[in-house]
Specification:
Elements: H1 3-20, H2 51-60, H3 70-75, H4 79-86, H5 90-101, H6 118-130, H7 135-142, H8 146-161, H9 164-167, H10 174-187, E1 192-203, E2 221-228, E3 234-242, H11 247-252, H12 255-262, H13 264-267, E4 273-276, E5 286-287, H14 298-310, H15 312-324, E6 330-331, H16 337-356, H17 383-392
Parallel strand pairs: 1-4, 1-6, 4-5
Antiparallel strand pairs: 1-2, 2-3
């Protein structure tokens, strides 16, 4: 090895050592021998194995560690490993890949670098939804740039949201009788078209106008309101209202409330209705339980028990949603409310796709972590509830 290279290597090693040592503050000085000829600067004596890596280290800094060929690792997983990591079974994932590949959201330009494949795009998006790790870590895992990861996530979310009306839809025609029959089999309550509930999606403190987002549990959140059928399928979702709002107020601001009040028969034909907890008002199409004031009759207590057991469909649906897609349990990095809301809605769509494919996801009771917020609401319209009560307990 030439003298100049040996001196350069010595200088680089000394510089690296001094920069990494907290106890050293002396500057590094290196002088190239003035007798070195120009030809020696370009000679290759076969001993450059250490020289060039050190040059790259000096000028570029420490290289970020990236996982190479991680896509091959994903494809080598067993069915169980695949579902544990991606939170969806392989057959559903490959259906998504096939659909996304032929959609207008998949780049197909012929200039510049080759577009990132549909398979890699869906894998990156599902990994983002299934975990809480930052985009920087996802970038290292799949060996693409941070900007590309963020662009892929937004692109796939936009594509999934186009499925909203086809995947999350209100029961229609013959489906109405099917849903009601399945609810009746559970606890014997007739004409139940769904259960309605709200859950809180924990977020970081907003940079502006943060007070409305602080709920009574003293953390920042937005609401996800959903109507769920007997199979834990979402039939209506409404997301984005600040966490400080009461469930009843979130309902009044939703499109569901507006349509049902204008023409109930559109959503609730044949005197059907939904069940809600005590946070909701009593309406002709929404039945809450009797408020427990300490003077309930045994029949009213039994009614509340049947009511609560039937509403477990929404409890379990929220639990599965947050257990399957860990990203929506707490948004630790993002403050853009539109982006957060879109992620939550996309998770609801994926949840329904899994239900449609009969994919079961096991959860523990600790995942039933949505917050139920109650306030005093006067029971001024009791006819609908008493009608249901008299059907269940005709002898009273």
């Amino acid at each position: 090895m030439s003298m100049w290279k040996r001196k350069a290597i010595f200088c680089m090693i000394e510089t690296t050592t001094q920069l990494s040592s907290s106890s050293s503050s002396a500057s590094t000085y290196c002088e190239v021998d003035s007798t070195t000829t120009d030809d020696s600067l370009y000679e290759d004596d076969g001993d450059s194995t250490l020289y060039f890596p050190l040059m790259r280290y000096l000028f570029s800094g420490r290289k970020r560690y990236r996982v190479e060929q991680y896509l091959e690792i994903v494809e080598s997983w067993t069915e169980q490993e695949f579902k544990e990591h991606m939170r969806l079974p392989r057959q559903i994932v490959f259906l998504l890949i096939a659909e996304f590949e032929t959609s207008v959201f998949m780049p197909n330009h012929l200039y510049g670098s080759k577009p990132i494949s549909a398979k890699l795009s869906i894998f990156i998006f599902l990994w983002f939804m299934a975990n809480t790790e930052p985009i920087r870590t996802i970038s290292d895992r799949f060996d693409i740039s941070i900007s590309s990861v963020f662009r892929i996530i937004r692109r796939v979310i936009a594509w999934i949201l186009t499925k909203l009306d086809d995947v999350i839809k209100w029961p229609q025609q013959h489906n109405i009788s099917t849903v009601c029959a399945r609810f009746f089999i559970k606890k014997g309550i007739r004409r139940v078209l769904g259960t309605i509930d709200c859950t809180h999606i924990r977020i970081q403190k907003p940079l502006v106008n943060e007070i409305p987002y602080c709920n009574r549990k003293k953390f920042f959140s937005i609401h996800l309101q959903a109507v769920v059928d007997s199979d834990m399928r979402f039939t209506n979702v409404y997301c984005g209202e600040p966490g400080s709002l009461h469930d009843a107020r979130v309902l009044r601001r939703s499109t569901l409330y507006e349509i049902a009040n204008e023409d109930k028969e559109i959503l609730f034909p044949n005197n059907t209705f939904v069940l809600g907890d005590s946070a909701y008002p009593l309406l002709s199409w929404l039945v809450p339980p009797f408020r427990d004031n300490g003077h309930l009759t045994p029949q009213q207590t039994e009614f509340n028990s049947l009511h609560s057991s039937t509403r477990m469909a929404s409890e379990k649906a929220f639990g599965i949603l947050k257990a399957r897609f860990r990203r929506i349990k707490f948004f630790s990095e993002y403050r853009n409310m539109e982006f957060i809301t879109n992620i939550v809605i996309a998770a609801c769509i994926l949840h329904n796709l899994c239900i449609d494919e009969n994919d079961n996801f096991q959860i523990n009771e600790e995942n039933y972590d949505h917050v139920i917020m109650n306030e005093n609401i006067n029971d001024v319209r009791i006819d609908r509830r008493m009608q249901l009560f008299n059907e269940l307990f005709p002898e009273v």
